[in-house]
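Check my protein:
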Amino acid sequence: MDFNVKRLAADAGTFLSRAVQFTEERLGQAEKTELDAHLENLLVRAENTKQWTERIMKQTEVLLQPNPNARLEEFVYEKLEKKVPTRMNNHELLGQSMIESGNEFGPGTAYGNALIKCGETEKQIGGAERELIQCAAINFLTPFRNFLEGDFKTILKERKLLQVKRLDLDAAKTRLKKARMSDARAAAEQELRMTQSEFDRQAEITRLLLEGVSSTHAHHLRCLNDFVEAQTTYYAQCYQYMGDLQKQLGSFPSTFTNNNQSCASGGGASISVPTISVSASLPSASAARGSSTPSGGFNELRSSNGSRKARVLYDYDAASSSELSLLADEVITVSSVPGMDSDWLMGERGNQNGKVPITYLELLN
């Protein structure tokens, strides 16, 4: 019991001595031992590394999950050490809606078929996004978080201990200055040597930990390369999926292609973009656009009662036995039949023939 009381009294005395030293330093009434410039620079670099690591992590999480409510939910599940419920991302939700609406309008119609194809592609992009998020979490966010919750917390602990040792050292210096009697002065000198040794040892420990931040930077650089590689794979997949979709859907007429190109270059700065034909999924819109360019050729064909070659813009499923089913990018022979509706022509492919809508065709020279 007496030992515990004496120890508590000694701890209280030490704490009070540190508090007095700290207060007097703040008031400018006591000298303060300054750390060497190299150690100060290491401390500043470590603090900057911590702050920027937190900021990069936060912005990466916002990029991968823009919905703040979803991020909060994931954070709560992580703290509870529970698995986050699987939910469809935005691309997958859009894809599901497109597929359902395409089935409602009818897979045999041009619009319904196009919606289904777009929906399937959106789901593919959603899957690629999931892979990106998983890869970024494992190879990028987790190492950053491990630094903040592991290495930097150790640095912070040793830095606080160094501050304590410095206060003890400066308090010992103050007591030595105030000592008048020889016995008191000898005790103060011994205490100063001991506190100086403890301070130097703690400064060395702190310095070694702080110099390890260079290794942290090297490790984070490798993580950054992994993140860039994951993004490159993701965007390449998206580009491939959309390129394949455009090939399936065909091309807009030249007037719409020009409008798209003007948007790409209208910002003032010159931007190099890949040249990819843009898809047309709505026959009615194509009909409205086609009134200026293709109509002249079709009118000429009707008046001549001859035949022309035509390229199919996108797939068409025949609605009756009198019609001819079409595949995007194939070339067929078309001709006009007296009395036929102006929106239709007679199509011929080998020994197959039937009515075809002109909005699905592009006359060839």
In short: Strands lie at 307-312, 331-335, 344-349, 352-357, 361-363.
